[in-house]
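Supplementary Text 2. Reproducibility record for the structural model of the 158-residue chain.

All settings were left at their defaults, and a single model was retained for analysis rather than an ensemble. We include the record here because the model underlies the residue-level annotations in Supplementary Table 4.
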Amino acid sequence: LQYGGGIYRIADWAHITNCHVIPGEGIIQGLAEVGMPKGRGLLLLAEMSSKGMLATGAYTDKNVEMAIRNEFVIGFIGSRRFTEERDLITMTPGVGLHASGDALGQQYRTPEHIITENGSDIIIVGRGIFGPGKDAVVEAQRYRDAGWNAYLKRLDQN
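Retained model, structure tokens:
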């Protein structure tokens, strides 16, 4: 309800939104009815980056199947490129300049690993930029540069 109406009217201001497909393919169709006429797009939460996540295996496979069938889906939140059948964006969370983890179960991988080895298109960084004692501008520039250099490396591999 909040996507097309209510007090938030998310589709009026968010060009891209995301959802999980636990409710089934109807969630995609319902969001598409509102978003397609406005030129919006949808990312499916196919995987997460935290330790012990449940979004794996058959759940991830169903995300891919649904994405291929639904034009409104423009890609995924996940750890890797899932398919070549359709040109879909992959945005990957759990990015750190040094691969490691944290006390909250987050598992970090480097921009180079995510982009060159896993084929992801966009890195999602949170605590690496906004963590305690961090200069957000400096850290954002470091991640931007690391991501861009990894992308150039991937292009050279192809």
